[in-house]
Amino acid sequence: MRDMQTAEAGFQARIDEGVKIEPKDAMPDAYRQTLVRQISQHAHSEIVGQLPEGNWIGRAPTLQRKAILLAKVQDEAGHGLYLYGAAETLGVSREALIEDLLAGKAKYSSIFNYPTLTWADIGAIGWLVDGAAIMNQIPLCRCSYGPYARAMVRICKEESFHQRQGFDLLLALARGSAAQRAMAQDALNRWWWPSLMMFGPPDEQSPHTAQSAAWKIKLVTNDGLRQKFVDQTVPQAEFLGLQVPDPALRWNEARGHYDFGPIAWEEFYQVIRGNGPCNRDRMNARRRAHADGAWVREAAQAHAAKQRARPGAAA
Ligand code: FAQ
């Protein structure tokens, strides 16, 4: 017992010194489990997150917008793969993680359970959802677990392109006809509050924040990031000429931040319990895609086995 306490104190001291923890280093089980939980939820979010936008690839209004959207959705698939790779360094298998997702046992971000009803929603996802994702992920580039921190560097660069393309798309609509401006406003109305929920429950209701902060897995709290996001995004909405759907929103000179209205946390908890507007559709689409892709996985594994069996192949 005393040995375990000494080992945990030694581990915490390394974290406090800013040492990066690498896969072969000793680490407390709870640290490992926290990372597997967070990284796998993050990976699942990237994979399920392709669905709302993928829905619009065939309906993009121009060839250029279609090429941009295709590239973005492919990037999200890539992010999922780096993140499953980072989770595997902690001793779990990708297959087991995916099985948990398909069985409905694993979480993914609440935001991807909302529908994309119009083309403006694609702009709102890039601007707000990728904007929120970057806000959360920039600090993760400095988190204590090496493979996760390094995966985040490239992901953040790509998310930054995603955010800008979303803003650019909405700017084109906001400067377009009255109907296009109305479409952009309607998208902001529907995506604003779910985007604020993406950062997770309020700090005092977040069971994991204190320990994850001590381990430097979480460098900024849920409420801290949410406030930063509001402060950064409100002036962008003003530039677009759109109205943030919050009557309580106002600049607070004394705090140096925007005050904003109450978030409907009951809606958030409903969504993460599986009762959001699109949870069932999303899971059915993933299960179908996984089953349809079985032959690809088999062919890739057979090819890899054949390569390994070649005379002179590395052992
Ligand atoms: N949705 O104690 P906390 C993207 C759960 S970015 C669903 O605060 P924690 C890019 C949480 O898991 C989106 N569940 O937990 C993209 C926990 O449940 P558990 C993904 C949520 O971990 C853009 C419980 O509530 N980004 O996909 C949510 O310390 C466009 C208690 O919460 C990441 O995953 C939520 N919004 O903090 C892709 C970033 N919030 O496990 C395509 C990495 C909380 O006890 C298109 N993750 N929960 O059953 C994190 O930074 C953290 O995990 C938080 C949650 C901040 C999400």
Brief sketch in words of this structure:
This protein has 13 helices and two strands. It has helices spanning 2-17, 29-48, 50-54, 63-88, 94-102, 120-140, 146-174, 178-197, 209-214, 222-240, 265-275, 279-292, 294-309, and strands spanning 250-252, 257-259.
Set down the secondary structure blueprint.
Layout: H1 2-17, H2 29-48, H3 50-54, H4 63-88, H5 94-102, H6 120-140, H7 146-174, H8 178-197, H9 209-214, H10 222-240, E1 250-252, E2 257-259, H11 265-275, H12 279-292, H13 294-309
Antiparallel strand pairs: 1-2
Helix pairs in contact: 2-4, 4-7, 6-7, 6-8, 6-10
Overview of the molecule:
By secondary structure, the chain is mostly helical. It is built from 13 helices and two strands; from the N terminus they run H-H-H-H-H-H-H-H-H-H-E-E-H-H-H. It has helices at 2-17, 29-48, 50-54, 63-88, 94-102, 120-140, 146-174, 178-197, 209-214, 222-240, 265-275, 279-292, 294-309; strands at residues 250-252, 257-259. The chain has a two-stranded antiparallel ribbon. A hairpin with a 4-residue loop joins strand 1 (250-252) and strand 2 (257-259). Helix 2 packs antiparallel against helix 4 (63-88), helix 4 runs antiparallel to helix 7 and helix 6 (120-140) packs parallel to helix 8. The two termini are 41 Å apart. The site of Phenylacetyl coenzyme A has 29 residues, from helix 2, helix 6 and helix 9. Phenylacetyl coenzyme A (FAQ) is lined by residues 37-38, 41-42, 45-46, 49, 76, 107, 109-110, 125, 129-130, 133, 136, 197-201, 206-209, 212, 218, 222, 272.
Q: What is the quaternary state of this protein?
A: single chain
Proportion of helical residues:
55-70%
- Work out the number of β strands: 2
The pLDDT mean sits at 96
Shape: globular
| Proportion of residues in β-strands | under 5%
Q: Strand order within the widest sheet?
A: 1-2
Question: Strand count, sense and closure of the main sheet?
Answer: 2 strands, antiparallel
The SSE string, one letter per element, is HHHHHHHHHHEEHHH
Structural class: mainly alpha
Unreliably modeled segments: none
Ligand identities: Phenylacetyl coenzyme A
Q: Span from first to last CA? A: 41 Å
Structure annotation, total helices: 13
